[in-house]
Every structure is written in C-alpha cells, then in structure tokens.
Design a protein that fits this description.
By secondary structure, the chain is an alpha/beta fold. It has 2 domains: 127 residues, Leucine Aminopeptidase, subunit E, domain 1 (3-Layer(aba) Sandwich), CATH 3.40.220; 324 residues, Aminopeptidase, CATH 3.40.630.10. It contains 14 helices and 19 strands.
Length: 466
C-alpha cells in the first residue's frame, strides 16, 4: 500500500493534485483550465506543467473515484501529493483510499522490471485538519485488507496451495488474530465428507482454516465462510482448457474473508468475528471423487454428486455446518461459485441470496457505501425441488452441464445453515478485472473485504443492537 504522510503544506518535489468543483478553480490555474476546456466536471482532469511545478486539477465527484483517477494519471511518479486542505477529513481520506486501490500492482515474481508497472509508492495527503489523520486510520484498515486479498488471489496455484494459503495467513497472527488449522486427517476424522472428497484427488491435501478476532464485547460472533479452491480443474468433470488458468482465483471468497478479518483487527473492531476457510485443490487423479458418488457431509446429510466441477458448494456446505456450531448471530459466505451469476449480473455486481431480508438489506447498503454492489436473488421452492435425489438426501447440483444454477446452488447451501441468519454472496465475475481503467487496476479486486468490514461496522459493533 502507498505510504501516506500528512504534511500541512504542499511539497515542492512531487506532482500536486488539486481536487476542484465547478466555479472553484484557483485563479492562477484558470487560464490553463480555459485553454484545456476544463470546467471541473466530476472525474475530469487538467494537467499543468509550469515553473512552479507539476499540477493536476481533478474534478471532484465521488472522492474515492476521484483519487483513483488522479493516481491513474500519475502512476509513473514515485510520489504524489493531494491538496486536501479545503476538504472534509472524510473526503480527504477517501481520496487517498482511491489512490491506494488504483496504484496496487503485483510484481513479486518478476526477475526483470516491468517498464509499464506503476512506480507510485508514496502519497502526501496535505491537510491542516488534525481529524484527517484519524479519518485515514479508520478507512485504511479496509484498504489494507483488500490489498492483502488481492495479493492472495493473484498468487499462482503452484505456490498458493492449501498449505501455502495457511502460510500466508500466519502474518495475521501479528494483528492479534488467532489461527486454527484442521489438516486432512482431522477433517476425515471429524466427517468433513464434502471438503475431503473435493481435495482427495490432489497431491496437496485439503485443510480448514479458522481465523478469530475476539473483539471486546460479549455478543455472539459473526461468522464469515469462504470458498478456498486454490485451483479448479473441474475434477473428473474437467473444464475446457480455454481460460482454465484463471481458476487460480477460485479462492477469492476465502481471500476476502481473510482480508476482512485483517481489516477488523487493524481498526480494533469491538465485534467478535470468526472466519472459516475451506481450502482444497480440485484436481484429477486416481483418488478423485466421481459423478454419482454419495458423500456424507459434516452435518450428516447425504449428498449425491452430479458434477465434480460444482465442488465449491460441497466445501462451503461443510464449512457452513462447522460455522453454525458456534451459534453465530449471522453467517455470510463468499464464493466464486457459478458462471450463471455472471450471465445474470455481468461484472457489475455480485448475487446475494439469503434467509434474512433485513440482513441482506444491510449488506446491500454496506456494499453501496464502498462501491461493492449486490443484487438480491431468489431461492424458490422449485430451486430446492430440482435437487431432489433418488438415492440420497439431496443432489448438490442440477442435472446437465452448463445449467444455470446459481439459485439451486444457494438452495443447496441453505440446507446447511439451520436457523442462523445467513447470506450467500456469489462473487463470480467480481473477483478480478480483465483490464485496467481510470478507476481500477487490472487484476484482482479484493471484492467483499470492504463490504464485510462496513457491514460489521454498521450492524454488529453496537452490542445493544444484538
């Protein structure tokens, strides 16, 4: 993340970004603005090179988007400054947040420098208001959590195996987050039939990670549950080769849950929260589970397998049943689960399924506040009936490859949550961006981290609301 400092006046040795509104362009820049037809309309820019220095005027709209746009114009500068002296502390912090999100890039595995990679490493947030630093401290935790998730999603599957994922989580212990790991032997002994089956075809054994942030009040915890398929071949129901390399990102739900726990710890949230991450590689091998197999899940439910490429709901079902044993006041699972949700909603928003409309509304509001949008989707009686099995308690997906079954997947997951208020966020299509633009970096997005952080802040940090 960019190194943020808070000088009281603009530095002379870095490009200066000045957010402006229509009618408020500083007089000394008005001639250049007029020549460039710059009116300070939201998210427009005017770049000025003069003897006094390098200045970028930016039309102030949504502050976070404005900060991202400004950073996108100056990514090759090692350091930039934002003049936020005329802004509220909240808007100033949001500008810095947008810049940090846009400047992110992943270059850990390069042996030669990328000539097009951002050089931007520092940001001077110019403000004489002492509350600006506090506003940044409040928002920066979510940014750091999102960037942690982005790094996880970007890492290749030969390095981020289930065990490799656990190794990355160990840094969270430094933030007073506890980490418990159930290895493959413990999973088999406990009866995690879904998670064990999905992972047994790989040389990299499955495991379950449980992260805990204790908080400070005594309310029941909130549970996050994440799908952590570190690579998905589809198993015996193997995927087409085209695009399969993208399946290293099939653990984005687990990454988001880990990033959200980190954000809560960094800002010392009073709410107790835990995260259950089901980690496995869905590979093909002599021990791979098969279409037609019947699995006994952690809950005791028997499940008929139809398509081994619908593995995510199997690992989530066991993780949800495990999380429900903690008697949480709510559970939220995140998963890159179905292609059909991308068909329905594109790359603009994630699907939200629930058994609690008020919780869903709170999540949608939290997502809108941080630019991570949700659309509520149905779970109808017919979606559950489609999963009736002739030989087991339930099938895990509908018959026929390629069937649009996001709603049926949610109906399946609902069988494992009991009476706990629950949300299922199908984030397929939202975990990464194919191309960079003015407001977003190319690659992993960290979608869900800031949504969860905001949801906890809005709904669960006041123990009197429980």
């Amino acid at each position: 993340m960019l190194k943020i400092t808070f000088p009281p006046s603009p530095p002379r040795d870095a490009p200066l970004i000045i957010p402006v509104r229509p009618g408020q362009i500083p007089a000394q820049f008005q001639p250049a603005a007029t020549a460039g037809a710059f009116t300070a309309a939201p998210e427009t820019t005017c770049e000025i090179f003069a003897a006094t220095g390098h200045t970028l005027l930016v039309g102030l709209g949504n502050p976070e988007a404005t900060g991202a746009l400004a950073a996108s114009r100056l990514l090759r500068s090692p350091r930039i400054a934002i003049d936020a002296r005329h802004l509220s502390p909240t808007d100033a912090a949001a500008l810095a947040a947008g810049a940090c999100l846009r400047a992110w890039h992943y270059d850990r595995l390069r042996t030669q420098p990328d000539e097009d990679a951002p050089l931007l490493a520092g940001l001077d947030l110019v403000s004489d208001n002492p509350k600006t630093r506090a506003a940044w401290a409040d928002i920066s935790a979510g940014i750091e959590g999102a960037l942690f998730a982005r790094d996880l999603v970007t890492e290749p599957a030969n390095m981020l195996t289930p065990a490799g994922f656990i190794a990355r989580l160990e840094r969270l212990v430094e933030a007073s987050i506890s980490l418990e790991v159930l290895d493959a032997a413990a999973l088999r002994a406990a009866g995690f039939g879904g998670l064990v089956a999905v992972g047994q075809g790989s040389v990299h054994p499955p495991c379950l990670a449980v992260l805990r942030w204790a908080g400070t009040h005594s309310a029941p915890p909130v549970g996050f549950v994440g799908k952590g398929i570190t690579f998905d071949t589809g198993g015996i129901s193997i995927k087409p080769a085209d695009g399969m390399w993208e399946m290293r990102a099939d653990m984005a739900g687990a990454a988001a849950c880990a990033g959200a726990i980190l954000a809560l710890a960094l800002r010392r949230s009073p709410a107790p929260v835990f995260a259950v991450l089901a980690l496995a590689e869905n590979a093909t091998g002599a021990r791979s589970y098969r279409p037609g197999d019947v699995l006994t899940m952690l809950s005791g439910t028997t499940v008929q397998v139809v398509d081994t490429d619908a593995e995510g709901r199997l690992v989530l079902a066991d993780a949800l049943a495990y999380a429900a044993r903690e008697n949480p006041q709510a559970m939220i699972d995140l998963a890159t689960l179905t292609g059909s949700i991308v068909t329905a909603l594109g790359h603009e928003m994630a699907g939200c399924f629930d058994n609690d409309p008020a919780l869903a509304a709170s999540a949608a509001s939290a997502g809108a506040m941080v630019g991570e949008f949700l659309w509520r989707m149905p779970i109808g009686q017919s979606h559950r009936r489609a999963l009736d099995s002739d030989i087991a308690d339930i099938k895990h997906c509908v018959d026929g490859r390629g069937q649009p079954d996001a709603c049926q997947a949610a109906a399946f997951l609902r069988e494992f949550v009991g009476e706990t208020p629950w949300l299922h966020l199908d984030i397929a299509g939202m975990e990464s961006r194919a191309e960079a633009d003015d407001l977003h970096a190319k690659g992993a997005t960290g979608f869900g981290v800031r949504l969860l952080d905001r949801l906890i802040a809005d709904r669960f940090e006041d123990p009197h609301r429980v």
